[in-house]
Amino acid sequence: MEAGLEDVIAARTVLSDVDGQAGRLIIRGASLDSLVGVESFESVCARLWAGFSPDLPADLPAALGRARAEVWREVDDLDDRLAALPPVEALRGLMARLADGEDTATALRVVAAPAVFTGAVLRRAQGLAPVHPDPGSGHAADLLRMISGAPPTPAQAAALDAYLVTVIDHGLNASTFAARVAASTRAGLVSAALAGISALKGPLHGGAPGPVIDMLDAIATPEHARAWLEAALDGGDRLMGFGHRVYRVRDPRADALKAAIRRLGADQGRLALGEAVEAAALEILRSRKPDRALETNVEFYTALLLEALSIPPSAFTCIFAAGRVAGWTAHAWEQVATGRLIRPQSIYVGPVPAAA
Ligand code: ACO
């Protein structure tokens, strides 16, 4: 058994499939390309949830809008100590206050929560009043409005919607596995999402895009890219936004997000710098690690997209959670349906007590 369990199959799922050799991601029978920019986050969430709960709402966008308004009451509990934490930890703290359960109403609240709480946490930290959700708005547009205080342009809302769909589910990644383990104990969907967020926030998983921004800031101009990247690798650092446990070719989500940034037209932020840094990084990684296919992963273009939408890097992991939470809830339901507690074995390699 490998230390990272990459050789272990720990679930059977109808939700998504990651083909790391072909660079293909299937979400509930559809290729990622056929969903991003075509279906809304709510629509793909409905796909993931189909068949897992007896009372799924026919109008998911409306039900999710009502759930955003419902979880708003937790914002009253956003005290100064919570607001002073890094946004993803404050989000986790607020989500921990939701009542747990395995029903559809709980699932809706869990999916609504990151969108509502992220804006509230960011605004409180800046001394601004949190913005109440608009239940009639699309989820992505409302999320952006609750952060900035102003309605986004249709292009901005579409770009965030494309992002939320792109990251909505991805096989048995670390956070989804954590969510399934918690769900298998019948702890409930809130607990599953909290387990997911806790695993997501690490820099080797969903915490990478913030450091991608730090890297772009430090490089600043395309001509500095090569020297900076070489020095980082000489110092033993990994290049954030590159490499993946499963993909041996380019992560298909990177191209979906790059296309979403392009659709922002004049507001595409630092895409040109990003492309120059990506090209230099890939060339260097190929020459330094010729036997290890290290390609661009989803986090690289996540950073560029979310920055172009004026979302602060400190909140990037929260926005990732706002998309992935739909996958966590679907996986939690799927795990519960198996009726089986996840409880692997370990091999003890420590000392044994001496015989008496
Ligand atoms: N930069 C430089 N070298 C790298 C990188 C990188 N980004 N990624 C892997 N390597 C090297 C490792 O140092 C290792 O070299 P070695 O064999 O000489 O020790 C080799 O490639 C294989 O590394 P592993 O750790 O086995 O690769 P693994 O598949 O376990 O790692 C991971 C995947 C954690 C994503 C890794 O590529 C990484 O740390 N990337 C940077 C962080 C990042 O971008 N995370 C986001 C991932 S996407 C997501 O989770 C949503």
Topology:
Elements: E1 16-19, E2 24-27, E3 30-31, H1 32-35, H2 41-49, H3 60-71, H4 80-83, H5 87-95, H6 104-125, H7 139-148, H8 154-166, H9 174-184, H10 189-200, H11 209-219, H12 225-234, H13 252-262, H14 271-288, H15 298-308, H16 316-338
Antiparallel strand pairs: 1-2, 2-3
Helix pairs in contact: 2-16, 3-6, 5-6, 5-10, 6-7, 6-16, 7-8, 8-13, 8-16, 9-10, 9-16, 10-16, 11-15, 12-14, 13-15
What is the CATH C level class of the largest domain, in words? Answer: Mainly Alpha
| CATH architecture verdict of the largest domain | Orthogonal Bundle
* Number of separate domains: 2
Radius of gyration computed on alpha carbons: 20 Å
Strand order within the widest beta sheet: 1-2-3
| Arithmetic mean pLDDT | 95
State the distance separating the first and last CA atoms. 34 Å
Major β-sheet annotation: 3 strands, antiparallel
Ligands bound, unique = acetyl coenzyme *A
Order of helices and strands: EEEHHHHHHHHHHHHHHHH
CATH topology of the largest domain: Citrate Synthase, domain 1
Helix content percent band: 40-55%
Judged by helices, strands and strand pairing, the structural class is mainly alpha
What's the shape?
globular
Question: What features would you describe in this structure?
Answer:
The protein has helices at 32-35, 41-49, 60-71, 80-83, 87-95, 104-125, 139-148, 154-166, 174-184, 189-200, 209-219, 225-234, 252-262, 271-288, 298-308, 316-338, and strands at residues 16-19, 24-27, 30-31. By secondary structure, the chain is an all-alpha fold. The chain folds into two domains: 29-204 and 321-338, Citrate Synthase, domain 1, CATH 1.10.580.10; 209-308, Cytochrome p450-Terp, domain 2, CATH 1.10.230. A hairpin with a 4-residue loop joins strand 1 (16-19) and strand 2 (24-27). The protein starts with 15 loop residues before the first strand and ends in an 18-residue tail after the last helix. The model has no long low-confidence stretch (mean pLDDT 95).
